[in-house]
Design brief:
The complex is a heterodimer. In chain A, 0% of the residues lie in helices and 54% in strands. Chain A has no helices and 11 strands. Chain A is globular, with a radius of gyration of 14 Å. Chain B is mainly β. Chain B has strands spanning 4-5, 10-14, 19-25, 32-38, 45-51, 56-59, 62-67, 72-77, 86-93, 102-103, 107-112. Classes of the chains: A mainly beta, B mainly beta.
Chain lengths: 118, 113
C-alpha cells in the first residue's frame, strides 16, 4: 500500500448511529488533515494533526470527533449526525507541520469517504 | 464569502488547444498558491504551485501565472489532452493561516478529442 488510504469509501448511516472513518498514510508524513467537501462547495478544512497533536480545529461541531493515535493513522468518529453532514470526507497528509522557508506544504489526499446521513 | 473563487464551473476545450483556468482571490495576505487536479472517485492530486515572489512557474505542459495586483492567477495547459479532463482546484495559503489551505470550488475541464 502506498499513499493515503481511506476506508470505508462509502458509508450510509442514520442520525442515531455511531460510525468511524479511517485514514492511513504510508508516506512517512508528520501532519494529517480532515477536509469536508459538500456538493458544489469548496473543500473545507476540519482538523489538523502534527505529530499526533491536534493543532487546528476549524470550528467543527462536536458530533465530529477526530483521533490520531500515531503519525500514520487518523480517525474521524461520527455520532448523531445530521443529513446536512452528508458529504465527501477527504483525508490528507503532508511532510511537515509548518510552512517553512519553502512555503506551503503540499497535501497528498486520499480518495475520500462518501458519507450519506439519512 | 469565498476568499478563493473560480468563476467558471466548467470549461470545454478541443484536444491540442490551450486550456486556461482562472482563479481570483480576495485576501492580500495569501502568498502561496497551488493547483490540484481531481479525477472522479479519486482524491485531489497536486499539480503545480507558485510563490508570490514569482509571476510565472512552468512544469511541462502546465504553466501558472500570478498577477498579484489583480489578485488573479491562471493555469495554462498546452497542448490539452483528453487525459487532462478533470476538476481543477485552486488553493491559497498565507503565513498567518497556519496550515489552512483555502480552496476554490473547482472548474471541470473537458478536453474533447
Amino acid at each position: 500500500e502506498t499513499g493515503v488510504t481511506q476506508t470505508p469509501r462509502h458509508l450510509v448511516m442514520g442520525m442515531t448511529n455511531k460510525k468511524s472513518l479511517k485514514c492511513e498514510q504510508h508516506l512517512g508524513h508528520n501532519a494529517m488533515y480532515w477536509y469536508k467537501q459538500s456538493a458544489k462547495k469548496p473543500l473545507e478544512l476540519m482538523f489538523v494533526y502534527n505529530f499526533k497533536e491536534q493543532t487546528e480545529n476549524n470550528s467543527v461541531p462536536s458530533r465530529f470527533s477526530p483521533e490520531c493515535p500515531n503519525s500514520s493513522h487518523l480517525f474521524l468518529h461520527l455520532h448523531t449526525l445530521q443529513p446536512e453532514d452528508s458529504a465527501l470526507y477527504l483525508c490528507a497528509s503532508s511532510q511537515d507541520s509548518g510552512r517553512g522557508a519553502s512555503g506551503a506544504n503540499v497535501l497528498t489526499f486520499g480518495a475520500g469517504s462518501r458519507l450519506t446521513v439519512l | 464569502d469565498q476568499q478563493v473563487k473560480q468563476n467558471s464551473p466548467s470549461l470545454s476545450v478541443q484536444e491540442g488547444r490551450i486550456s486556461i483556468l482562472n482563479c481570483d482571490y480576495t485576501n492580500s495576505m495569501f502568498d502561496y498558491f497551488l493547483w490540484y487536479k481531481k479525477y472522479p472517485a479519486e482524491g485531489p492530486t497536486f499539480l503545480i504551485s507558485i510563490s508570490s515572489i514569482k509571476d510565472k512557474n512552468e512544469d511541462g505542459r502546465f504553466t501558472v501565472f500570478l498577477n498579484k495586483s489583480a489578485k488573479h492567477l491562471s493555469l495554462h495547459i498546452v497542448p490539452s489532452q483528453p487525459g487532462d479532463s478533470a476538476v481543477y482546484f485552486c488553493a491559497a495559503s498565507a503565513n498567518n493561516y497556519g496550515q489552512n489551505f483555502v480552496f476554490g470550488p473547482g472548474t471541470r475541464l473537458s478536453v474533447l478529442p
